[in-house]
Specification:
Elements (H helix, E strand, L loop, with lengths): L2 E4 L12 H8 L13 H5 L3 H18 L6 H9 L3 E6 L6 H10 L6 E4 L6 H6 L4 E4 L2 H11 L3 E4 L12 E4 L2 H15 L1
Length: 189
């Protein structure tokens, strides 16, 4: 049995989850292909203060309405029978109840959810002894892989296209992630 560290937003949820909310509020018409950087204030040309104020107010609604990434439930349902699923997210810790309600509404099982309120997931991943990590933020993936010497699967999006080191594996979807994990598990045993 392995312990999987799994990011939530843009990994378990669709990377497009934010877009309808951004487009609606800021009167834009963006698609995922337009989001070429993780730092949205630069893409949107909006001050960090303006964006931050909006995001803090919109965050609960966004998370409540986030659609699952295609294929995520099927794969996570297979993994939950064999492995421990530890969801580690940069969401604010006061959103834990809402997050658990979303997991329940999606009929997604978890062994542990930790909302750390920052993008620095290294100490949390280390504390819980995760064997592998699943992420969509490029610098998180690189840092976790390099600091913890574990494989990190990076879900391919327009906003995470910088080069990656050997320990980071780019996957296009949950099916590809599962294929890579199955090979990795065979090599580990």
């Amino acid at each position: 049995m392995k312990r999987f560290g799994i990011d939530i937003d843009g990994t378990v949820t669709s990377p497009e989850s934010l877009l309808p909310h951004i487009n609606d509020y800021f009167k834009l018409n963006l698609t995922l292909q337009d989001i070429t950087q993780y730092e949205l204030t630069e893409v949107l040309n909006i001050s960090p203060q303006t964006f931050g104020k909006w995001f803090k107010e919109a965050e609960p609604t966004i998370y409540k309405e986030s659609p699952l990434a295609p294929g995520a439930k099927k794969i996570l349902d297979q993994w939950k029978e064999i492995h421990e699923l530890y969801f580690i997210s940069a969401r604010r810790s006061d959103l834990i109840q809402l997050t658990k309600e979303w997991f329940n509404s999606q009929d997604l099982m978890y062994h542990h959810i930790e909302l750390i309120g920052s993008h620095d997931k290294i100490s949390t991943a280390k504390k819980h002894g995760v064997d592998i990590f699943f992420e969509d933020k490029h610098d998180n993936a690189v840092a976790i892989s390099e600091e913890l010497s574990i494989p990190v699967l990076l879900f391919n999006t327009p906003y995470n296209q910088k080069p990656i080191p050997d320990g980071v594996i780019r996957v296009n979807d949950w099916q590809e992630a599962n294929s890579w994990v199955q090979t990795w598990l065979q090599n580990e045993s």
